[in-house]
Amino acid sequence: MAAPPSRRRQAPFLIGLVLILAALPVGWFVFLREPPAPLPPQAPQRTAVAQAEAKKAVELVLSSFDGTVDVKHGEAGAWEPARKDMPLRPTDVVRTGRGSWAVVLNGEAVELRLEAETEISVEELSNELSRVMLSSGLATATVRGRSNVRHTFILKAKGANAEASTAQGTFTMSNNGNGTVSVGTREGDVKLADKEGRYVIVRAGQRSIVRPGMEPSKPEPIPSTVFVKMEWPTGKQRNREVAVVGRTDPGNRVTVDGVNVPTDADGGFTLSLSLKNGPNPVQVTAVNVGGARQTEQQELTFEAPPPPPPPPPKPGIKVDTKVFQESADGTSP
């Protein structure tokens, strides 16, 4: 049966309408759409040389110091006086003398301050990592975090089972040179670990102590005062050489008249003093990793014992001088 005439007349119209609607998006895309903005030029890929340049070793710089500060290049090098802005590379060693201090910088990433009678050696330097060995003494590190490069600073303790690390913060480490280490944090968090992988997180205002053969102690608040107990001799001293015994908290640094005194794992120490004639003022100072200090003073008087009395004269043989005179004249007695 044939379709009605009205439907036959509507078919071309509907087909044309569909074609027009289908052509509208194509026409808009071809004639009306704005062309896309050109892509920005791509940055050239970093070459292996550029990547190696970014990871090359950087330098520590001895930025400032006061007093006697010496540097040697390598373990076999000779000690020489430090110079301002002196570059320091791996295997270099820095030491400060009595009453002296020094500050070394790794760009804007790390600042390390060495107190009197402190020795460090540089182990590793790069944009991402600084590793320094504290042979003995007291040092404070400030590590500044940066958004573009994460820099980790590690301070190892020579002769001890301890190393402290942080990517942002300020901490102080003391090393008595005999295996006892104390770490106190002022800002940020510091990881204090031993060679067996055991570690604690020392947060701001806390300290931890590592004794020989032991793991880091549980962090505790840094004491605001320092304990020092001295056993001073009494009365006038008859011996010129005197030994004075004292005790402080483990990990504290002790000096007598500015000279460092070794302490044991429990904080005990002995002063060997050589007295001069008359009064001898002695000043003992203990400092903890938080910067608190305590000073004990005493005056020891040396009085030399009186000289022994002269020995009595030995009994002699009585001689008759008359006999000798007659013999000299040639006459017999």
Automatic annotation (TrEMBL):
Q: Which InterPro entries match?
A: FecR, Ig-like_fold
- Per UniProt, which keywords does this protein have? Membrane, Transmembrane, Transmembrane helix
Stretches for region Disordered: 290-333
Cite the record's Pro residues compositional bias ranges: 304-315
Asked whether the keyword Membrane is assigned, the reply is yes
Q: Indicate yes or no for the key word Signal.
A: no
Domain FecR protein, residue spans:
92-191
Residues annotated as transmembrane: 12-31
Q: Which PANTHER family match?
A: LIPL45-RELATED LIPOPROTEIN-RELATED
Name of the protein: FecR protein domain-containing protein
User: Can you name the source organism?
Assistant: Corallococcus coralloides (strain ATCC 25202 / DSM 2259 / NBRC 100086 / M2)
